[in-house]
Write a structure and sequence with these properties.
Layout: E1 18-24, H1 32-51, E2 60-66, H2 71-83, E3 88-91, H3 95-108, E4 112-114, E5 130-132, H4 137-150, E6 155-160, H5 164-177, E7 183-188, H6 194-204, E8 208-212, H7 219-227, E9 236-238, H8 247-253, E10 262-264, H9 272-285, H10 291-310, H11 314-319, E11 326-328, E12 331-333, E13 335-336, E14 344-346, E15 352-357, E16 360-369
Parallel strand pairs: 1-2, 1-3, 3-4, 4-5, 5-14, 6-7, 6-8, 8-9
Antiparallel strand pairs: 10-15, 11-12, 13-14, 15-16
Helix pairs in contact: 1-9, 1-10, 2-3, 4-5, 6-7
Length: about 375
Amino acid sequence: MNTPPLPLTKAHTDGSAVRIGALVPLTRPGWAEAGQHLLAGLELGVSEANDAGGIGGRPLQLVVRDTAADPEKAATAVDELARLGVAALAGEYHSVVARAAAARADALGLPFLCSSAVLDELTDRPTDRVARLAPAQSHGWRIYADFLFGAGHRRIAVATQPSVYWASGTRILRDHLAPRGGAVVELAMNALTPEAVCDALVDSGATALLLLVGHPDPAVPIVKAVRRDHRLAEVLIGAPAGQPEFASWAALLGDDGAAIPFLRYLPERLGPLGARVATALRERLGSAPSFVAFEGYDTIAVLADVLRSEGADRARTTASWPHVAVEGTRGKIRFSRTPGISVWQWTWTPVQVVDRDPAEPDRFRVLHTG
């Protein structure tokens, strides 16, 4: 891009576009399918904002950077976008990457509305510059733990990889289940093959196995191995992080990918706005939109509303988070301070536990709501 660097304190002040920097994983090892859904929502939001007159007559423009699930790459992108004069940052799906982006944005005084990442402590210290739409991990994963407990599971195995995100999820599950007599058994995937996971699962006595691992590898091989092991026919496989949400899951696993509960951040029924946006997103994506696409759209709905009322000034944008009241695709969006969470938080988007119907794997069944 040949655009010269702009002041760090605010975006353009002439008649040119108001820019929003968009961080999305579009290449591996990032979850590119999630990134495509997130970007589709962001782009639809910008298109509709411009159809409605833009920001005081100035067009809204996305400046997209691929993070590829790399925290260092994301931090570098934040520096570049700040120099380009974006009014705010939006997006990111991977929690560890969003954490790096949030830290850099906070240091630069750049407002960041995080669309999808869920780590409770998105920044090391409380900040006024970062807000988030997705529910905190502790909120969503406790709802998932309640679902497991209600379904009669007391001994839970987790196949996990080294990551702040997976470690946080394991801790949330253990802390929430232990007071009620539940137990969590960790199976470290850096030391086990999928077949060894099956043996360890039998030895553990667990009635559920949660996939706290990357997709497609090793999640898909683990599912295939467990499904084919007659000793584990009654064991529930779960994926709280949402791997089965996307079409690639069904394409890779077929019938084996059904009946694996995961977290989804949608209401049981979309209202008029959500239904209209769902139709538009389906046209863009060529398939049913995931909740991540709605997160992208809602991100732009909030930022466009803030920029219209406050102008493209970074300090005024960050001061506006507690005053936001925007109708999103999944309900009224307002931000508040929540104990244990370091950023402004929407409390809360709707949370569901759903799975793919074994009788019709392209259809989702709602199993639990929170």
